[in-house]
Specification:
Length: 495
């Protein structure tokens, strides 16, 4: 096996490990979400969603780019991982404590006339440094190419959340009890992440204080990008809660949480690429970027079709008929998620190539557009308007991020595989429509949607393989006939 093939296999295994861990974790999280929404209902779930959105925003302030910077620097062969770990922990915990105080002060102003939500926010805020501990420790694992360990953390954190939810439901605790149990689950997850990271890289705290200022200064641009991203993702929930009330934010929050796994895929793939990408030459980096785009396109292209068919029955299966209106929101968010999958990978590769300044400006523009559009759409159309604003914002982001990507990776777009994925999506969609009209095949409900979705996925992947195989065979015949085509080895970047 050549070096190129070994690296490709290594990246595929790393990505598969993260996706497996995240998928298992998502499944466990969905069980927790099922129990919580069934227990609290739309009215009580609204304040919980708003409080969690507030908590999430300030959690990302707790480690302003430190985790991303640490992950990138630890991946370098010449790095002093022990010292970096120590400085990163000091920087993230210091800033997270300050972030929690700011979050509490601002919440007193915003939620003063909503005491139940305010109290829940204050209960959640001790979890801000715990999130910082989890992110920083997880960054060490990714940087040291321990994808399996990081996948284990993804799964365990979801298990701890499920355990906390079971305690709340079993003992009939109110929403304040849910907040306290949530923080406990974060604490256990953070300690497990630190223990696992310390097993591979023992943090060195001696002299760490001298490097805190320089680390925070270097991480600030990445931190600003993180802040833009989390405001972009969660400000709509806060707006919905303040403008439209509990039920609207509960429905939107459920749809968003159901789509969260999809939003995480680019980050997982980028993290799997990181160790090889940071040590590769320019040609190899273009090849890795091309393969990553192939993986993302495989998921992104059929996603709106799956959302159109399965979103509403999935929501009813997950949370019951009281949340059925969230099905339409999830359908719209799957369109946004399909675009965001591409944007997320373009963002990840641009970060790895060091295009921080351009990313910062683009993230700021997209966030500003999103906030302005949400201010209008939420007021006029509520949760549905907010969901469509997400699609609109992602389209703008795709145009801007594509420009940055093309300036850094000008020759890393393929033709054959993306076309195969497009054709496979069209074939699956037309086949389903034909069966629906011709023989009356329904979408399904309850547990029956799972085997049907898996069956569609299997047909889709089989169609990609067949179309790609035919394209390769036709390409080889053209080459034999005297038409010069690019070679199909690992370093070719033009097909």
């Amino acid at each position: 096996m050549s070096k190129s093939q070994k690296q490709t296999r290594h990246i595929a295994l790393g990505t598969a490990a993260r996706i497996t861990g995240k998928t298992l974790g998502a499944g466990v999280s969905l069980v927790a979400l099922h129990l919580a929404t069934k227990y609290f209902g739309p009215v009580q779930w609204g304040p919980i969603t708003a409080a969690l959105a507030w908590f999430t925003v300030f959690s990302y302030l707790g480690s302003p780019g430190v985790a991303t910077l640490t992950m990138r620097e630890v991946a370098r062969q010449e790095s002093d991982a022990e010292s970096l770990f120590g400085k990163a922990l000091g920087a993230s915990l210091l800033v997270s404590a300050f972030s929690g105080l700011v979050a509490a002060a601002v919440a007193l102003v915003v939620y003063w006339d909503r005491p139940n939500t305010l109290i829940l926010v204050l209960i959640l805020l001790p979890g801000v440094p715990l999130i910082a501990l989890f992110f920083t420790s997880g960054a060490i694992l990714v940087g040291r190419d321990r994808s399996g360990a990081r996948a284990t953390l993804d799964f365990l954190s979801s298990v701890f959340l499920l355990a906390a939810t079971l305690v709340v439901v079993d003992t009939r605790l109110p929403i304040r009890g849910y907040g306290a149990a949530y923080v406990v689950s974060l604490g256990v997850s953070g300690l497990c992440a630190f223990g696992l990271a310390a097993h591979f890289v023992r943090p060195r705290f001696r002299g760490a204080s001298k490097g805190l200022r320089s680390m925070l200064r270097d991480a600030l641009p990445l931190g600003q990008i993180d802040l833009f991203a989390v405001i972009y993702a969660r400000a709509d929930a806060v707006m919905l809660f303040l403008i439209k009330g509990d039920r609207a934010v509960a429905l939107y929050g459920l749809a968003y949480q159901a789509a969260t796994f999809l939003f995480a895929l680019p980050g997982m793939l980028g993290n799997a690429l990181l160790p090889d990408f940071m040590t590769a030459d320019a040609v190899r980096r273009e090849f890795l970027a091309r393969r990553a785009l192939d993986v993302i396109l495989t998921v992104a292209l059929p996603l709106p079709l799956f959302g159109f068919l399965f979103a509403r029955p999935f929501v009813i299966w997950l949370a019951g008929a009281r949340f059925s209106s969230a099905g339409g929101l999830l359908t719209i968010l799957t369109i946004a998620a399909a675009i965001q999958l591409l944007n997320g990978l373009l963002f990840q590769i641009a970060v790895l190539r060091g295009a921080i300044q351009g990313i910062w400006k683009t993230a700021g523009v997209v966030t500003a557009v999103n906030l302005a559009a949400n201010g209008i759409a939420v007021t006029l159309w509520g949760a549905t308007g907010s969901a469509w604003v997400m699609v609109f914002s992602e389209l703008i982001g795709f145009v801007l991020y594509s420009r940055i990507y093309r300036s850094r990776m000008p020759r890393s777009l393929g033709r054959r595989y993306p076309l195969s994925a497009v054709l496979a999506t069209v074939v699956v969609g037309v086949t389903w429509f034909t069966l629906h009209v011709g023989v009356g095949l329904s979408v399904g409900a309850g547990a029956s949607i799972l085997p049907r979705a898996l069956g569609m996925t299997a047909v889709y992947l089989a169609m990609i393989w067949c179309i790609s195989y035919i394209a390769r065979r036709c390409g080889n015949r053209q080459h034999v006939a005297g038409i010069q085509l690019p070679k199909g080895n690992g370093r070719d970047l033009s097909t």
